[in-house]
């Protein structure tokens, strides 16, 4: 039995213990059961059903395919093959130059497009492209969890495709302006309390998931990103999650940030219940790609989650460049970009 299913069993066992404690016989053991229930995290039935459904259908976020990123060089090498490229940028940016063969679709159009506009599994790969790779990473996570297992996000977005875009995008977004405010003291993970209530009113994991995905695509992507300026203006306003290795976290992190392990956080109720439901949750990593995938998962379960635009690159870039070899940082430079052509 998996760790998460054990959690489900424990949860319902605790509920049973609580019911027995209400018979009027105030034995010591029953009082202990009530005490244990009060300390246990509150996980709603709909949340458990959705988690179970996702696990039974591949458990994407804890698989070797998470996160599903692909390099621009691979996309270029496979042009003309059985792949589909979907450009998520605005029609204006798309018209100004795009990858040959790419189709332009709005974020909110994707569920219907995948259901009726194409036969997704006839393609070897469906590659999503945006300006910097973060919106496409967020979108890829949603589509993967919906069951489309051949969807990928192009790393760095169009900034990785052609240096023209990199000079206007990523290179303008990197900064070391907050390096002097980094914290090296580790912050403790809060005690598990609860997870958001989904309240769809539905009774199966699939139905609940369909409703949640529909809502997220209707909500759009206008508030999935947050900037370093916003965070550093008042870090205590947010619950900040660091998704880096321990040595990178220890080398310097945003004040108040708590380190969570990607491989043992998403989908595990004992860890997800430690994330406050009454604060905006900011997730960050080195480049913003991994955190965008994690943001999609947390938003699916009702958290007000945002990903830090450009990740560590947006506030400690100079430090990343200096320590690239010692800590294997990935600071964005023009070396990460290419000179691949675009068409209009």
- Overall structural domain count: 3
| Spatial order of the strands forming the largest sheet | 1-5-4-2-3
C-alpha geometry: globular
Terminal residue distance: 53 Å
Structural class: alpha/beta
The count of helical stretches stands at: 17
- What Rg, in angstroms, do the CA atoms define? 22 Å
User: What is the CATH superfamily label of the largest domain?
Assistant: Rhodanese-like domain
Low-confidence stretches: 5-38
> What quaternary form is this?
single chain
CATH class of the largest domain: Alpha Beta
Please name the defining characteristics of this protein.
single chain, 344 residues, Oxidized Rhodanese, domain 1, 3 domains, 5-stranded parallel β-sheet, 41% helix
How would you characterize this protein structure?
The protein has helices at 3-20, 28-39, 45-56, 72-77, 91-96, 110-117, 134-145, 158-161, 163-168, 170-173, 205-219, 228-233, 246-251, 269-272, 289-300, 317-322, 324-327; strands at residues 69-70, 83-87, 103-104, 125-129, 151-154, 225-226, 238-242, 258-259, 280-284, 305-308. The chain has 344 residues and is α/β, with parallel strands linked by helices. The protein folds into three domains: 1-40; 62-173, Rhodanese-like domain (Oxidized Rhodanese, domain 1, 3-Layer(aba) Sandwich), CATH 3.40.250; 179-327, 3-Layer(aba) Sandwich (Oxidized Rhodanese, domain 1), CATH 3.40.250.10. Helix 1 packs across helix 2 (28-39) and helix 3 (45-56) packs across helix 11 (205-219). The chain is globular, with a radius of gyration of 22 Å.
List the SSEs and their pairings.
Elements: H1 3-20, H2 28-39, H3 45-56, E1 69-70, H4 72-77, E2 83-87, H5 91-96, E3 103-104, H6 110-117, E4 125-129, H7 134-145, E5 151-154, H8 158-161, H9 163-168, H10 170-173, H11 205-219, E6 225-226, H12 228-233, E7 238-242, H13 246-251, E8 258-259, H14 269-272, E9 280-284, H15 289-300, E10 305-308, H16 317-322, H17 324-327
Parallel strand pairs: 1-5, 2-3, 2-4, 4-5, 6-10, 7-8, 7-9, 9-10
């Amino acid at each position: 039995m998996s760790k998460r299913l054990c959690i489900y069993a424990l949860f319902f066992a605790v509920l049973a213990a609580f019911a027995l404690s209400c018979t009027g016989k105030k034995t010591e053991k029953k009082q202990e059961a009530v005490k244990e229930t009060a300390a246990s995290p509150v996980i709603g039935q709909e949340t458990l059903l959705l988690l179970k459904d996702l696990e039974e259908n591949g458990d994407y976020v804890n698989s070797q395919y998470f996160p599903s990123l692909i390099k621009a060089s691979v996309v270029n090498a496979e042009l003309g093959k059985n792949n589909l490229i979907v450009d998520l940028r605005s029609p204006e940016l798309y018209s100004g130059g795009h990858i040959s063969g790419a189709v332009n679709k709005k974020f909110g159009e994707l569920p219907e497009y995948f259901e009726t506009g194409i036969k997704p599994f006839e393609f070897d790969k469906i590659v999503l492209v945006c300006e910097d790779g973060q919106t496409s990473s967020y979108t890829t996570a949603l589509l993967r969890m919906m069951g489309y297992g051949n969807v990928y996000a192009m790393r760095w977005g169009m900034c990785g495709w052609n240096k023209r875009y990199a000079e206007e995008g990523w290179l303008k977004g990197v900064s070391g302006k907050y390096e002097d405010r980094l914290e090296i003291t580790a912050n403790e993970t809060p005690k598990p309390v609860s997870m958001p209530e989904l309240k769809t009113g539905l009774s199966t994991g699939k139905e609940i998931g369909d409703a949640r995905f529909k809502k997220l695509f209707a909500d759009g992507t206008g508030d999935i990103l947050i900037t370093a300026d916003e965070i550093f203006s008042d870090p205590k306003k947010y619950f900040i999650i660091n998704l880096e290795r321990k040595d990178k976290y220890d080398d310097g992190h945003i004040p108040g940030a708590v380190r969570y392990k990607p491989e043992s956080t998403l989908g595990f109720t004992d860890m997800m219940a430690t994330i406050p439901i009454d604060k905006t949750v900011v997730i960050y990593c080195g480049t913003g790609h991994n955190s965008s995938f994690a943001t999609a998962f947390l938003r699916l379960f009702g958290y007000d989650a945002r990903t830090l635009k450009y990740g560590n690159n947006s506030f400690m870039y100079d430090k990343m460049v200096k320590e690239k070899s010692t800590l294997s940082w990935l600071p964005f430079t023009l070396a990460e970009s290419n000179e691949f052509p675009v068409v209009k």
